Automatic annotation (TrEMBL):
Taxonomy of the source species: Bacteria, Pseudomonadati, Pseudomonadota, Betaproteobacteria, Burkholderiales
PANTHER family noted in UniProt: STRESS RESPONSE PROTEIN NHAX, UNIVERSAL STRESS PROTEIN UP12
Domain of life the protein comes from: Bacteria
Domain UspA: 5-142, 150-272
Cross-referenced InterPro entries: Rossmann-like_a/b/a_fold (IPR014729), Universal_stress_UspA (IPR006015), UspA (IPR006016)
Protein family (similarity comment): Belongs to the universal stress protein A family.
Descriptive protein name: UspA domain-containing protein
Amino acid sequence: MTQLFTRLLLATEHTDYDSGAEAMAFALAQRCQLPLAAVLPLVSNPEYEALAPQIAVKAEREAASKMIQLREQASAQGVHMDLRLRRGEEPYQEIVAEAQALGSDMIIIRRRGKRSFFANLLVGEMVSKVVTHAPCHVLIVPRQARMWQQRVLVAAEATAQGQQIVAIAVAVAAQCALPIHLVCVVAAQTLCAQADAFVTEMLKLAQAQGVAAQGEVRVGKPYTEIFAAREACQADLMVMGGRGEASIGRALIGGVAQKVMGLADVPVMVLHI
């Protein structure tokens, strides 16, 4: 079977907050027998560094030490990793630039770090910007999360974009030999017929790919119902789109995606269609 993702990029600052993303990247590289690229962004401000060069020297030393540790960890896992240090004023810009330069098809990144506001609810600012501006799909990994082994939950609307999201989620489930659960959330009962038809069609697509599939339509607030569905089916990977079809440009992540990314205790794969 053709690999769904072939150019993985781990984005990490090698802190305790990054441990889940690093473990996930190593596990995916091992499981799919893929080389792994990694980028460690280092905040660099030439004007500030000119005034306080000792701080810049210390940051460089710490970054060099982190790179040595990362390479040793990857080697211990039997993973070949091409690790690069990128300097810039905005870490997210360096991560996005590295993904563009490498033609990455998935970025693997932590959910939040110590600088996050509302740390109990939201995704870190840097991570949110990576997801918003990424040229590819992004896998957001909570610190304690591990490789999925139970079920893939995909949340999608009855649209052309939703069909593409489900198709990718089905491919992920097929590669991992896991069942899939589709949830389609609508705002009112009057929209259920269209959603039911969509779910039925998508389940046939999954079954044609040899994937065991279940689906349901829920009425209510999207993120609330998505989490209720995940809890009920015990999925340990969530897949969804990053923005609705009505979004303009790449200014924002969709509000539902933002909440799911921030509240989920399992990895969330955000697809850019």
